[in-house]
Amino acid sequence: MRTRFALVFAGTLLAAWSFVVSCGGGAPTESPQASRPSPSVELVVSAASDLSPVLAELGPLLKESAGITFAANLGSTGQLMEQIVAGARVDVFLAASSTAVEQLDDKGLLVPGSARLYARGRLVMWTREDAGLKVDTIADLAGPDVKRISIANPDHAPYGEAAREALESAGLWDRLQDKIVPAENVRQAFQFAESGNVDVGLVALSLVATGGGTYTLVSEELYGPIHQTLAIIATSTHQEQAAQFVAFLTGSRGREILLKHGFVLPEED
User: Fold this and answer.
1) pLDDT tens across 106-127, in order?
2) How many CB atoms lie within 10 A of CB 8?
3) CATH 3.10.20.310 fits domain 123-217
4) In which band, very low, low, confident or very high, does the pLDDT at 27 lie, cut at 50, 70 and 90?
5) Which of 10, 53, 62, 229 has the CB geometry, 3.0–4.6 Å to 25, for a possible disulfide?
6) In whole angstroms, what is the distance from residue 185 CA to residue 206 CA?
7) CA dist., res. 188 & res. 51, Å (int)
């Protein structure tokens, strides 16, 4: 996958599925003595749903160290991009795709120079521990014991696009059409599998890296890199605080959390 952004660290179901949770925000340094913005400032962070465990962990740390809070609007990257184009109030966009950020940049909707790659995501096949399934390779998805497979909608979700590409590369996409259950975003695809409504979920490693169940990494030779890219939105009225959020996420504490949840940092590629 091509991207015009440098690999550096500078930094709902539509209405029914996109949801808002209150979290903490970020700082230009990680020192508790850093100057704090007004406590009345709450950033709006539109984030790909694979980041839900990262933001949940990051929030309290950001609030404690910098006094910035944020509300996280989680959903598929494509749907979140459409909301931004439509004029939704957003300060920071954490996408699971470089393409979506490039499109917003082309429309003049980003703070110039704020787009950065912050991580690379990975795709896994996940099953419940009590499912009794052996899914060691992607070819096992065609087996008779696997009857339903959840993936994020590939039309607007980067992990769904990666899942489709992997299945196509393995020669399985057409064969598995009767088994595939699409979800609005990758987090919902995981919930379908977690609830037992499907046998296997093709989901983000970040959603399962620290939880239960069993997973197998999908070979990255089967799909293009999932370049997770962020940017500050030009209409943000809190650009200073947004920049502090970005600095914290891409600083040492944020990087530790990203690694913990299975993301690959750019310098590891």
Assistant:
1) 999 999 999 999 999 999 999 9
2) 12
3) no
4) very low
5) 62
6) 14
7) 13
